[in-house]
Write a structure and sequence with these properties.
The complex is a heterodimer of chains A (229) and B (775). Chain A is built from 7 helices and 7 strands; from the N terminus they run ββαββαβααβαβαα. The relative contact order of chain A is 0.18. Residues 1-11 and 205-228 of chain A have low confidence and may be disordered. Chain A is α/β, with parallel strands linked by helices. Chain A has a 7-stranded mixed beta sheet, with helices on both faces. Chain A has helices spanning 33-42, 93-98, 115-119, 121-131, 156-166, 181-203, 213-219, and strands at 5-8, 19-27, 55-67, 73-86, 105-111, 138-144, 170-172. Chain B is flat and about 90 Å long. The longest helix of chain B is centred in the C-terminal third of the chain and has 47 residues, at 551-597. A two-stranded antiparallel sheet of chain B has the order 1-2. Chain B has a two-stranded antiparallel ribbon with strand order 3-4. By secondary structure, chain B is mostly helical. In chain B, helix 17 (363-376) crosses helix 18 (384-401). The model of chain B is unreliable at 148-433, 494-506, 524-551, 592-610 and 693-775 (pLDDT under 50). The chains are: A alpha/beta (229), B mainly alpha (775).
Chain lengths: 229, 775
Amino acid sequence: MSRARFLKISTMTDGDYDYLIKLLALGDSGVGKTTFLYRYTDNKFNPKFITTVGIDFREKRVVYNSRGPNGSPGKAFKVHLQLWDTAGQERFRSLTTAFFRDAMGFLLMFDLTSQQSFLNVRNWMSQLQANAYCENPDIVLIGNKADLSDQREVNERQAKDLADKYGIPYFETSAATGQNVEKAVDTLLDLIMKRMEQCVDKTQVSDTANGGSSGKLDSAKPEEKKCAC
Amino acid sequence: MGRKLDLSKLTDEEAKHVWEVVQRDFDLRKKEEERLEELKCKIDQESSKREFLTNQSHLNETHCVHCLQPFKFLLNSKRQCLDCRFYTCKNCSRYNKKEQGWVCDPCRLSRIVRIGSLEWYYEHVRSRFKRFGSAKVLQSLYGRLQPGQGVKSTFLGLHDRVYSLPDINSECQLLTSSGIGDDSDDEDGVLRGAEAECYSRMRKTKRLLSVHPFDFELDSEYSAQSRRQSLQLSPAASSPDAFQSFPDFPNSAEDASQKESRIAEADLVFHHILQEQGPGASPPEQHFSTEVRLTVNSRRRSLERNVKPGSPWNEQPQSRYSADMDTSDEDVKGAQFHAYLPHHAKCQNRASSQENASHSGNQVPNSCRTSCETKSVAKPLLPYTVLVICEVQDGSEEKRSSGGKPRAGRGSEEAGVHPLVLRLEEMEGLRLAGGQRQAVRDLGQRAADCIVLSSKAVALELLTGTSRIHELNKRMSAIESMLNRLEEKILVRSDESPAPESQLDPDAEEEELKRKLEELASNISDKEVSSEEEEREEKKRMQKPEISSSSDDMARDARKRSSAQALSEITAKVLRAINATEEAVCESLHGESQCNGSCAPPAGQLPSLGDGKEVAEAYRELEENVYLTAGKTYQLEKTLKELEEGTRHSSTTDSELSELEDKVASAAAQVQQAESEISDIESRIAALSAAGLTVKSVEKARKKSSGQAMPGLQGFRRKFDSPLEINGLDDSFDRNSVYRGSLTQRNPNGKNRRVERLFAVRTQPPGRIAGLGSV
């Protein structure tokens, strides 16, 4: 999935971007959603645990370089990301789920050092299906805290199987070291960009001739049927 | 599951945090909405330009539909856009590898908008939910934070207002038309307690109370319309009424929101008036910007009202709205100087709209009244409509005649305009060819208009207290001297042209003219550079106090900055108009002398037919570009007006400051764009004469240019004029039509001669030219 490359841009206040894309991080309390996003946007790590109050969001500007089918560099788009951070605590549940519909893509996270958080991934998936904008939105499964290998409770095989079952990509990340953090978000962004182009192509009569190139890529993941838009 | 939104477990602190996050989200949505609107506006402009250009079906065969560069074999080959099927040059399109074809830049932009507007996504959200998440939470927070019984009805009243007008109507319309919205009723059906009651109220009014994704996508024309209507119906009744309906409501923020909605309405109408008045100043260009401005503005307002209905926490009683109040209050009671400018501007508006009163009917008094509400919102409890009407009527005469400094500003305006007009009259007295005369008058008028604007800027200066009148005067005198030179040139030329020398040596003459043109151009660019530098320095100077100074100073700085920016804009504009005048005069002179010179063209110079056509077209393009540039100028004018308005409302919040800064930046960008356009035109003039324009037979060229070029020009002008007709602005329209009529007259005399002149400049072997037109 390294077909897209992203760069950070310094200025963020202006409207000089091509697309606004909204992502949302969800998962059990304490899996590291906030630190993950903090690492992604600011490239910093805060080891202190501060529980998120309901919701929050961060923003980041990146450059999306789509690649052609043969890997040749394609168009570059400036993308403004709105990254929703949600509270994992149960008491905020009804609030946070209300925001699911405001995002186009999801970072579903669990803690590699907590078997329970991994088991709850199923629950989160069904929450997503009920509350996201459609039943099969773009999702990336993320096992966080990969740096704490001595405390690890979930092995990679398990997690990968589950991701395959849902037809979604899986990454093991570490907000502490930054490992795979960008890659996971970029992959999600790539999925969303593909869907965006595809959905527009579908609504158009004229542009369908070659619009299927990204569709082929999707067909490799049978469970994630693209919504009929 | 997950449908109910029970926020009762949240503590106040938490609820507040959530509220703030939701506000941020709304801000982001608002920005995005504005961004998309701007892009759509750009696309519309481009497509209307294309539409016009492709009326001449042959044009696109030989010229890029976007930049109007002629296609040349190998050098500048043409390619067809996948989307619009028009031909563009390489610079104006990009190759799309996936689709293995070229897509021109405007189409690429519209693709981005199509993708970026995320229609499909919102379609999904819409089909599953009633409103987007932030809106749902916002609504629930209202329910949670206003539980008291007494307050409740009041709250609902506010609620009604906040979420009404115009969003309501459109939402209703859209919901019924799309036939959805009922599938998610259960979502709110589980709201409990106070919320349930609230909900039942909402049911009665059937969705009149909610924010919905539609609100951000609705056709903004509709919203602008509905709001205007509401104003017309009850400008007097609605506001006192609204205030009486919550007499003892404790939260001052609600009052503020009320006021702010009044301001928003007044602003809207004020914009509307400005637009009505705008065309009078600069006729043919308003097609591009006015409507769009209005819609963007209205939408932003409506959104703001949704977002800031007054925080349920009492912590920010002095919002920026109340800051607005203070300023405007000052305006009403306070110093004459401060009051002068708004009055001045409004009086002008009023005068102009009165001229059109017979056409626009009862709308005029209403909008007039409302424009003044901007000022009087400070005392919403007074029967202010009456007050305001009096104020306008008194104020307009009184303050216009009140002497002192403002008078000086006005004086300089008259001093600026009249000499110009006189000079133009003088030019006419020279018995130039009809076409020349018309061109001079037309473009000169534009210059005069610009000077009217600059006088406004002078008034603006007075408002801020930093007087730079003499600087402006200096600039104006520079402009005048340039006009003088122009005049001289006309005199010299008209003396010269009948003389035999010019016949003998057309090349030398052209060289000279070109030299002068370049000189003028460099002059202009020097000036602009210097003024820009000045600006920069000024900004630097302002930067420091801004950081440390009090809020008052900040406001003043913002004003200063905007007025400074406006000044430099105006200078650029005036210079540009002069430049255009110069160009036109030069060209018509070319034409005239050429007529004399090429009455008996040598037999060897007989041209080919195809090239005559090309040259005629190329010339016409030039002319079109002049108009397009003029359009840009008009946009600048609008920006200035916005700045003016911004100055009037100058308050101290950061957001407003940054908004001003944004405006300034965009204005600067526009200036730059217009500049580049001018230089483009210049270079094309140069290219046209340098690219070996070969000699045509006089008859052919004449036939070509009168047969093809003119309909094009007419069509173009008509395009610009038509919105004026619709708006009933007959004053400006009449003037335009006069111009238009004589513009057509000008052609047989002026332009053909120009064409002939161009043909005579250089002779080239016909074979070489044959390749030029193809591919």
